[in-house]
Amino acid sequence: MTEWDIKKLHILRTLRDRGTVTATAQALLMTPSAVSQQLTNLAKQLGVPLLEAHGRRVRLTDAAHLVLRHAEAVFAQLERADAELDGYLRGEAGQVRVAAFPTSVPALLVPAVRQLRTAHPGLDVRIREAEAAEAYELLTAGEVDLALSLAAHAPTARDPKYTRLPLLTDPLDVALPAGHPLADAPGLRLADLAAEPWIFGGSGPWSEITTAACEAAGFVPEQAHSASGWTAILAMVEAGLGIALVPRMASADRRGGGGVVMRVLSADQPRRHVVAAVRRGAEEGPAVARVLAALRQAAVQRENVQRS
Questions:
Q1: Half-sphere exposure of residue 12, counting CA atoms within 13 Å on the CB side?
Q2: DSSP designation for 300
Q3: How many other β-carbons are positioned within 10 Å of the β-carbon of residue 18?
Q4: Beta strands of 106-234 (E only): which ranges?
Q5: What is the largest CA-CA distance in the chain?
Q6: Which of 188, 144, 187, 183 is closest to 162 using CA atoms?
Q7: Is residue 16 within 8 Å of 88, Cβ to Cβ?
Q8: What is the pTM of this model?
Q9: pLDDT tens-digit series, residues 139-159
Q10: How far apart are CA 217 and CA 192, in angstroms?
Q11: Taking Cα atoms as reference points, which of 196, 200, 224 lies closest to residue 211?
């Protein structure tokens, strides 16, 4: 029977994901020569070539991709085994580490943790704020157990390394300064705001969301000012410096000031989708499952508030 070495398979998978032996070595805290030696030994154990020269680099052979397709099932089963063992040893206790993008922390994660503290006081949820790219790097590296991100910036549902669960559909409203000519306009559409000065970040997910939403409505937004924090954005809107798209999840707790009017857009209202992801198989662990259930409950409550 062919000998399958889990450690060496993990190195091969990391090489596929990172692209080079050097990057793989850095990710796994190994030397490049040690990575090469381990993969050479794995090829001998399996009896098939796993790497081939490609210029100054190497790339995976078809045989290597075949091996990894089966290895993903092994990794998922090991995650399930770890999760079940953790549940057996810890019972109601345990620690779940969550990486979450900024607006999801107060809107979803904090309410979920409050509910868990009452229902499962022995469960310790550790929160780490991170944008999508960093969150999935942390999840892949095993430094967090769950990642919250926007679906547009998450790995696809077909990625064999993760189980992805939809949580929330979050509408985007437009923030206008009080007294704006369109503040009370009936049936306001995003296209009606094509000539307005806009406020959004210079780069990153929110810049992409704003520009994509406006382009879908038929125009390219003129960026008058750049900011990434909602406090700064809404302060500039209140001062009449421009307008901004604001996710309802972010604006719900910031309606105190009378200088900003939040308008629900009509037929062309853009939306963003919030998802949770875990390493495939880990969703069956009792601690992670409880956190996911609490997040789903918080998402339902948030959507009910948004509809009211």
A1: 30
A2: H
A3: 15
A4: 123-129, 146-150, 162-177, 197-199, 222-225
A5: 76
A6: 144
A7: no
A8: 0.74
A9: 999 999 999 998 887 878 788
A10: 9
A11: 200
Tokens of 85: 């063992």
- 102 alpha carbon, distance to own chain's centre: 11
Query: Which amino acid would we find at residue 217?
Result: A
How far is C-alpha 37 from the chain's CA centre? Answer: 35
Q: Token pair for residue 69? A: 């397709």
Dig out the tokens for 105 from the structure.
């922390």
How many residues make up the chain in this entry?
308
Tokens representing 159 are 């990625």
Give the pair of three-digit tokens for residue 205: 């997910």
Q: How many CA atoms lie within 13 A of 252 on its CB side?
A: 19
> Cα(17)–Cα(13) distance, rounded to whole angstroms?
6
Measured distance CA(176)–CA(183) in Å, rounded? 6
Task: Give 73's contacts (C-beta < 8 A, 6+ positions apart).
Answer: none
CB atoms within 10 A of CB 53: 8
User: 218: how many CB neighbours lie within 10 A of its CB?
Assistant: 11
Over residues 255-293, the pLDDT tens digits come to 545 799 999 997 778 888 999 999 999 988 888 999 999
